[in-house]
Design goal:
Elements: H1 2-15, H2 29-33, H3 42-45, H4 50-53, E1 79-80, H5 89-98, E2 104-105, E3 109-112, E4 131-134, E5 140-142, E6 148-149, H6 151-163, H7 181-200, E7 202-203, H8 209-218, H9 226-231, E8 235-237, E9 242-249, E10 254-265, E11 271-278, E12 299-303, H10 306-316, E13 320-322, E14 343-347, H11 352-365, E15 370-372, H12 382-387, H13 392-397, E16 400-401, H14 410-422, H15 424-427, H16 436-442, E17 450-454, H17 461-473, E18 479-483, H18 488-500, H19 511-519, E19 523-526, H20 534-548, E20 552-556, H21 558-562, H22 571-589, E21 592-596, H23 618-622, E22 625-631, E23 641-648, E24 654-659, E25 676-684, E26 689-697, H24 718-732
Parallel strand pairs: 1-19, 12-13, 12-14, 14-15, 17-21, 17-22, 18-19, 18-20, 20-21
Antiparallel strand pairs: 2-3, 3-4, 4-5, 5-6, 7-8, 8-9, 9-10, 10-11, 15-16, 22-23, 23-24, 24-25, 25-26
Length: about 725
């Protein structure tokens, strides 16, 4: 491995052995030399480019002082690739044993002595297990030197150390690709902005008493004392009237970032709070309150907001930390900092979304040490509990263990059932903002479900489902796209156009503005294209769920992913196996999977049905929701497309509503012109009948379409009811 050869040479230089690194034969000179930069003036370094560094080869000698540094390439988080052979904790343990490196099991990481520090003398009993290796990904972090990297990086460092008969290796030997000028400038600007905000903000203790009370009222922190705010280093930024929460990190606990929370009054007198972080949220890895944690602390309370963390600390005296992205994500890079705790109590909020996130995060942290606080009227979020005068210590003591047995009685399910009955709207899931008609039928987007989506060829399935997913992603749903039919560039172009709701080809001057906003969305793409093995795809999905807490996966589409190579194998059996695997993944990972499947070829004048989905009936049987994009190919007037909800396992409501495609913005969510019929079908399970309810959607439009006479509702049996409903709907369009 060329990286090992480079590390060996760099290690020799740093150890002062006088060894000259050998250039790997398969790399060009400029790429190899780009890892080394002489101690030049930083301003002069910017004028150098790889071809220019080639002529500096003769100047690189051991006698020359070298400036070694480790930098990160520009964040490529939106592209997810996965190795052919996924890493397992067994592989990691076997490798460490083969190299005689001691380790012991942690909750989410393996603990080993750091190879980047001199080992303690034998018999001293001061072995420092400060190297943490993630059991799932193999990524490592040395908490003493803050060196981090991938599993391959750690293997290379170990090989270099053993080949040179050394007991440790310099932390500076682990290098990365140098930052580009744009990345350097962006990072420098971010740090300047952090320092500007921090220096311009003032502690609340320096404000007048009237101002302090106004700020506390504005942010609903009246019960937090000035001593608590000072303890956590909270300040007030007057220009934007924002609370400033600092991020102190590194070996020197220096200022690395800030989070600003602002309050604004809406026209309906509602107070809306907005957050902003510097650096951007993808690079903001702050466990708020971490500098206050002692080495001997064994219990911690994790919250979803900084204010909640301060409320817990003030009311109970327990160590408390706030996650940087609230309930949306728990980055694995933070797990080593939580390894010291034997008990972790998750109190992320007072709604059902926080409860679902608590159960997901507990899997990363370790079920055996995790306890959850169930939301309820008497157990709101910590800040509200403090404001209501509740006993926070008693609430934490009453937390329930995350681990459960395979068999339970109703006694264990009782509170869960009550929670669903008391929070009907939250249990229904997240609602779409662009498709209100879909909310009326499906009620919302829920985790752990499988949605099958089909439609005629060329009807716009990918275009619709991209807006369908974009709507949810804009509301904070971590989304992973697996596009096996079209490449990621084209898909991203479609989604960006839908996001901006305009043709950016005609407004290129606005591209950077919209691209910057689009980049902040929790949106990720798989790099697969064409036929792929189902195991590889599932491993990638599981990898993404662990790293980025993905809660919505789109597979476009099943036929392209299957391919046509194994013609001797029963393709229907293969398809059934894949659908079953996606069903199991959605349930076990608490992740919604949207699966696009092409239909069988039907005549142009016939509408698609559930039976039109290609393959056996397993797709519709396993699915929680079945959506069909209907298209009248022989019609050109508005209303030629409609979306039919053919199955809804949540509450049984099915129906169909019209769509109108806007070619400029590539959206289906534009207001539908004219007077249309929305049919909502409710299934009566006792009598096996369906009652058809018709509601008119009236909109202001002078060119209203003349509606057809509504058919009289009749009681029919079985699938004939749905067929009559869809036929009637087609006539009304």
């Amino acid at each position: 491995m060329w990286r090992s050869r480079f590390l060996r040479g760099a290690g020799c230089l740093l150890q002062g052995t006088g060894c000259i690194p050998c250039k790997p034969s398969h790399l060009p000179h400029w790429r190899y030399l780009s890892f080394y930069q002489t101690c030049l003036n930083p301003v002069l370094q910017r004028s150098f480019r790889p071809p220019t560094w080639y002529c500096l080869e003769n100047r690189l000698r051991p006698a020359v002082a070298l400036y070694f540094f480790r930098t990160l390439r520009k964040d490529a988080k939106s592209i997810i690739d996965f190795p052919t052979q996924p890493l397992t904790v067994t592989d990691i343990k076997q490798y460490l044993r083969s190299k005689d490196i001691p380790f012991h099991d942690g909750y989410s990481c393996l603990h080993a002595p750091s190879i980047f520090m001199q080992p303690a003398p034998e018999g001293s009993g001061k072995e420092n297990y400060s190297l943490f290796i993630d059991k799932t990904t193999g990524q490592f972090l040395c908490k003493e030197t803050l060196v981090e990297g991938s599993w391959e990086d750690l293997q290379d460092c170990i090989e270099v150390m053993l080949n040179e008969n050394q007991t440790s290796i310099s932390p500076n030997v682990l290098l990365g690709f140098p930052e580009s000028m744009e990345e350097q400038e962006e990072r420098e600007m971010e740090m300047k902005e952090v320092q500007r905000i921090w220096s311009s903000s003032v502690p609340l203790s320096d404000l007048l008493e009237e101002e302090v009370q106004l700020v506390k009222t504005m942010f609903q922190i009246g019960k937090l004392t000035n001593a608590t705010l000072k303890k956590f280093g909270v300040r007030f930024f007057k220009p934007t009237k924002s609370l400033v929460f600092p991020w102190f990190g590194g070996r020197d606990l220096g200022l690395r970032g800030v989070k600003l929370i602002s309050a604004a009054m809406k026209s309906d007198k509602r107070v809306v709070y907005t957050e902003a972080t510097v650096p951007k949220i993808s690079s903001y890895h702050n466990l708020f309150g971490l500098p206050l944690i002692g080495r001997k602390d064994t219990e911690v309370v994790l919250t979803g907001r900084e204010i909640d963390s301060m409320a817990v600390s003030q009311a109970t005296g327990l160590p408390s930390l706030a996650l940087p992205r609230g309930v949306s994500c728990l980055p694995p890079i933070l797990l080593p900092y939580l390894e010291q705790f034997k008990k972790v109590t998750l109190w992320l909020g007072g709604d059902m979304r926080s409860w679902e996130a608590s159960k997901i995060f507990s899997r990363k942290l370790g079920l055996k040490r995790s306890s959850l606080i169930r939301p309820g009227d008497f157990q709101p979020c910590p800040s509200e509990a403090l404001a209501q005068g509740r006993n926070l210590a008693r609430i934490i003591k009453a937390s329930i263990p995350a681990a459960h047995k395979s068999i339970v009685s109703f006694k264990q399910l009782r509170e869960d059932v009550y929670g669903e009955l008391a929070n009907v709207e939250q249990v229904a899931g997240l609602q779409w903002s662009r498709f209100p008609e879909l909310n009326r039928i499906l009620k919302g987007h829920r985790k752990g479900e499988l949605t099958v989506f089909t439609g005629p060829t060329g009807s716009g399935k990918t275009t619709f489902i991209s807006e369908f997913a974009l709507d949810l992603c804009m509301q904070g749903v971590n989304t992973l796209w697996g596009s096996f039919e079209i490449n990621n560039v084209r898909l991203a172009k479609i989604m960006l156009t839908q996001f901006a709701k305009q043709r950016l080809e005609e407004n290129l001057d606005q591209y950077d503005m919209w691209a910057d906003k689009f980049e902040d969305l929790p949106l990720y793409f798989m790099t697969f294209h064409g036929q792929q093995n189902i195991k590889t795809v599932l491993d990638t999905m599981q990898h993404a769920v662990y790293l980025y807490d993905i809660s919505h996966v789109i597979i476009d589409n099943l036929q392209f992913m299957m391919g046509q190579e194994n013609l001797s194998v029963d393709k229907f059996a293969v398809q059934d196996h894949i659908i079953g695997a996606f069903r199991k993944f959605a349930t076990n990972s608490c992740c919604h999977v949207t699966l696009i499947i092409h239909p069988r070829k039907e005549e142009d004048d016939k509408e698609l049905q559930t039976a039109s989905i290609f393959g056996t009936a397993k797709a519709s049987q396993e699915a929680d929701n079945v959506l069909i994009l209907q298209e009248k190919k022989l019609v050109t007037c508005p209303g030629r497309r409609s979306l039919q909800v053919a199955k809804n396992r949540f509450d049984g409501d099915v129906g169909i509503f019209p769509l109108e495609f806007n070619k400029v913005s590539l959206t289906f969510s534009a207001p539908v012109k004219g007077k249309q019929k929305l049919r909502k079908v409710k299934v009566d399970k006792n009598n096996s009948t369906e009652e058809i309810e018709e509601t008119e959607l009236k909109e202001k439009n002078e060119k209203a379409l003349k509606p057809a006479k509504a058919k009289t509702s009749k009681t029919v049996k079985g699938s004939a009811a749905l067929k009559d409903t869809t036929d009637g709907e087609g006539n009304n369009q």
